């Protein structure tokens, strides 16, 4: 048994109210004139409080009314076999489509059930559609739940991690529609080289990928300002030149970063660089948050960081608003990021001549540039065997979320409350009233 509002069970204690009222109420004895008592000497009357329960059946009925009403407010739900069977006979289905077109989904694969609810999720990304479909299915009434993915299913449109994020109780079915072209050409972004900006064009033909770079009519702008000691300027320029010689993505004009090489405590120029990180603030801009997420996933940055014995010694880089980008061998961040006005702020424990500095510069440049996503240009479909491994039937309904159940069993308890109220009314009317009892006493005295 489940309870929709379990906190209401505390109201069962109200059943003791009739008993307490009966016990605690102070009753006064009635005066009756009696002829033979006139010749008795008057004495001081003692106050008497009665603690004897009268009319126990009526008291029990009243307590039962309050108890059953409290249970009804709690909303009991009995998981009977018939109820589970009724839930399993219906289906709630989410359809995830690639694009904005509507999709017709035939019932098959054991889904010949009554479709209780159905909703379509369209957008440029199947992964995002799957996440939104899962969130919606979590709020639907108890039923077998399934996600149907309708797409040409090119490689990269769905990954194993996307499928693993779907709860095991939700069924997955893939419906491949349309055909992928044999070849496709797409814009591959712009690259910043040593002396120019080059535009890249990517061509995908079957399993082969090729690209062609052409000179772009743009001024090459390095988007990262490096704050370091004056005598390190030559080394920093050489590190930037080395990074640009290997090509990095061009960042939009409104995206810039500042890299501060935090000096060790024994250097005399540490105060200037410490001031360069004093304006750190919590991350507010989405592109900065995305850039930090990309940097934390950079395998080259993680590999070079673990080789460092010590990270940033100042504890402020380990707490908000700073976010660790890579961890050194001592468990402290080798590099941490925050926001500074309108730019990304990165603090590093690596020196100017360290191998970590050009790796960090390359990671920052690519992260703020948001490299192009060529998955939508893919011409190769996901293998049918992989699709079969990912597919599964919707599982039977287990323990449903209480807040999604359309109907519970409280109506039977409210019916019992009405019956008990009728019984209590009949019992009260069947008893003699106080006037009738007084008249009977007078008659007995006479």
Model description:
By secondary structure, this protein is an alpha/beta fold. The protein folds into 3 domains: 2-39 and 49-78 and 409-445, no CATH class; 81-180 and 381-398; 223-372, no CATH class. Helices cover 32% and strands 21% of the residues. The protein has 13 helices and 15 strands. The chain has helices at residues 17-24, 56-74, 81-88, 126-137, 160-164, 233-245, 270-275, 286-296, 299-305, 356-369, 384-390, 410-430, 434-445; strands spanning 2-3, 76-77, 90-98, 114-123, 144-151, 171-176, 183-192, 197-205, 208-215, 224-227, 248-249, 257-261, 323-327, 333-340, 343-348. The strands form 4 sheets. Strands 10-12-15-14-13 form a 5-stranded mixed β-sheet. The protein has a 4-stranded parallel β-sheet with strand order 4-3-5-6. The longest helix has 21 residues, at 410-430. It is elongated. The two termini are 62 Å apart. Residues 266-274 have low confidence and may be disordered.
